[in-house]
């Protein structure tokens, strides 16, 4: 391991390991994407290791000089066989058990590749930002350099009034998976032997494997690119003559039960009957057809628009003609789509449970307590009616939303700088040096490369 302290004060050789890195998949895959670009923009020598399934995404969306820094791991025959069980198991059970087993096998394949990359490029520190689940195991141990894992989140259940969304078999699978995680972390001790673990909150820390070894740092896992999502002008000041005059609400995310889309449609129906409103639903997933049927059965076709997945440009254009972002999710650790809407100046309606409650504030969000299905639906209706009827309140909350993100340091550039400090501290402690990386020592930032290829609503 190099011991040139002067070099360590200026740059680090970092290996980032994350199975999926993409702007085209689910929210978790976006996290390592932003760290990748921010670390490179800050002048650090970054190498990346991920799964071959995202190779073509990255080849299309990245400049060749960045793509050349990425190594890829492929599935084994056993992993491919296990993946076919998705056809016969409930989605949640497959996700909790089979996918986790596949992920463990991937971890060990990536560990072997990581050893080669570390030796070839004299890596100073390994950074694993995903998976973000605190109970997910990490096989990144005994690599000859410090390992930092996180920011992690998770350890979340549905609100008590909604536990029935997970049937008995799924609840049993959750209990088994969580119980087995303690044994798995002893057998696969990446997190127990890490130099540092980064957690989003105390709930996440409590979900970690029992260990006294790693340093624990606190940093929320989600973020937003405040440059890519600039504050928009007031909607009514820029509206075209043919623009929809209705007050427009929008949801963006995967169509799965715990996102609460069915409750949102039911809550929106009374407002639709009153007139003057529209609801845009962006995304796709296993419940897309069921939601489409629900909209048709309620005769809301003219007031609820299902867009499917949209390119980032189309989604941003739609957001600019929207008045309120609604996130009825019942098991949301983060909320990057919500934060993008906040960044451009939209007020939020959400559920007072975890994600929205952690990332928003009363100044910019109306949060509904999920005491029961009826209470949630009535609360969403009431909140939408409140913002439909008060343009001044919408404007004030929209300004507060952007200001909240800036004041809380939730931009990716700020978050990446904090992680870099943690990485530098881990390197210094591993070498027995004092931690000396300051903001003055980091090279001047270059513009982070962007892309126009993103698909929203995954």
Kindly describe this structure.
A seven-stranded parallel beta sheet has the order 3-2-1-4-5-6-7, with helices on both faces. The chain has a six-stranded parallel beta sheet with strand order 10-9-8-12-13-14, sandwiched between helices. With 458 residues, it is of the alpha/beta class. It is built from 17 helices and 15 strands. The protein has two domains: 245 residues, Rossmann fold (3-Layer(aba) Sandwich), CATH 3.40.50; 173 residues, Glycogen Phosphorylase B (Rossmann fold, 3-Layer(aba) Sandwich), CATH 3.40.50. The N terminus and C terminus are likely disordered. Helix 10 crosses helix 15 and helix 13 packs across helix 16.
Report a brief summary of the structure.
The chain is an alpha/beta fold and 458 residues long. The protein is built from 17 helices and 15 strands.
How many structural domains?
A: 2
Helix content: 40-55%
Give the beta-strand count.
15
Question: How would the global form be characterised?
Answer: globular
Global structural class:
alpha/beta
Structural Rg: 22 Å
Give the overall pLDDT as a whole number.
83
Question: Unreliable stretches, pLDDT < 50, 5 or more residues?
Answer: 1-9, 435-458
* CATH structural architecture of the largest domain: 3-Layer(aba) Sandwich
Q: Note the beta-strand portion.
A: 5-15%
Q: How are the strands of the biggest sheet laid out side by side?
A: 3-2-1-4-5-6-7
How would a crystallographer describe the biggest sheet? 7 strands, parallel
CATH superfamily membership of the largest domain, which one? Glycogen Phosphorylase B
**Termini, distance in Å?**
41 Å
Query: What is the CATH topology assignment of the largest domain?
Result: Rossmann fold
- Per CATH, the class of the largest domain reads Alpha Beta
